[in-house]
Amino acid sequence: MEVKAIYRSARMSAFKVRDVTREIQGRPVAAALDIVAFSPKKAAFFVQKTLKSAIANAENNHNLRADKLVVKEAVAGEGMTIKRFIPKARGSAGPIRKRTCHIFITLTDEIEIKRRAPKAKAKTGATKKAPKKAETSKE
């Protein structure tokens, strides 16, 4: 089953939010929350808020367990642009575009969570080194 959450008109450009949404896409919910919680970007706050909303929708509306969910899709689309002007030289004006975005997150329980197998430790034995070539001196 798919569960969606939408954050509309977040006061940040979609270009900046897309970095964070690409990081969490395809990951289990627990891993996605960790990534968003420790990201230093301002956009991570908006994505975290939307992700928590999607998790709450899954638990309360569809009786799904959060530990079985995977982020199927995380998208940031352009929202409306607030247009303002700033005074410039010789009586002219320069435009200011205050961009917004819409954040869409889709969770699903149909994708199987892939767990990584622990890495095998490398052998700590001595390695053979190639013998050094003897220098010949011309005397």
Short précis:
The protein has 139 residues and is α+β, with helices and mostly antiparallel strands. The protein is 29% helix and 31% strand.
Secondary-structure blueprint of this entry?
Blueprint: E1 2-10, H1 14-24, H2 29-37, H3 43-62, E2 70-87, E3 93-108
Antiparallel strand pairs: 1-3, 2-3
Task: Give a structural overview.
The chain is an alpha+beta fold. It is built from three helices and three strands. The protein has one domain (2-108): Ribosomal Protein L22, Chain A. The chain has a three-stranded antiparallel β-sheet. Strand 2 (70-87) and strand 3 form a beta hairpin. Helix 1 (14-24) crosses helix 3 and helix 2 runs antiparallel to helix 3. The longest helix has 20 residues, at 43-62.
Structural class: alpha+beta
Taking Cα atoms only, what radius of gyration do you get, to the nearest Å?
26 Å
Distance between the termini: 84 Å
CATH C-level name: Alpha Beta
Domains (count): 1
Figure out the total of helices: 3
Strand order of the largest sheet: 1-3-2
**Percentage of residues assigned to helices:** 25-40%
How are helices and strands ordered from N to C? EHHHEE
Keywords:
single chain; alpha+beta; Ribosomal Protein L22, Chain A; 31% strand
